């Protein structure tokens, strides 16, 4: 009985100790963080095949990564509505 109580307290303490790390990691995964940047280039393509067409849009963003002295680029596929903003 005492061993089970000690084990329960140890597991509870471990969960309590790790909870802030797990919660912050999940928060960043769900919400992300904002880093200021500017649009470096935009690329829009329309492919036509057999009377159907597919529109794709990509945006390349230039930003300064935190704690680094160089510039980085990120290319992402965006929706056509977001591309026109």
Provide an overview of this structure.
This protein has 85 residues and is α+β, with helices and mostly antiparallel strands. The chain folds into two domains: 33 residues; 51 residues, no CATH class. The chain has two helices and three strands; from the N terminus they run αβββα. A hairpin with an 8-residue loop joins strand 2 and strand 3. It is elongated. The model has no long low-confidence stretch (mean pLDDT 89).
Q: Low-confidence parts, pLDDT < 50 over ≥5 residues?
A: none
Strand content: 35-45%
Helicity range of the residues?
40-55%
Tally of separate helices: 2
Largest sheet: 3 strands, antiparallel
Mean pLDDT: 89
The strand line-up of the biggest sheet is 1-2-3
Distance between the termini: 64 Å
Shape: elongated
Whole-number radius of gyration?
A: 23 Å
The domain tally reads 2
Question: How many beta-strand elements?
Answer: 3
What order do the SSEs take from the amino end to the carboxyl end, as H and E?
HEEEH
Structural class: alpha+beta
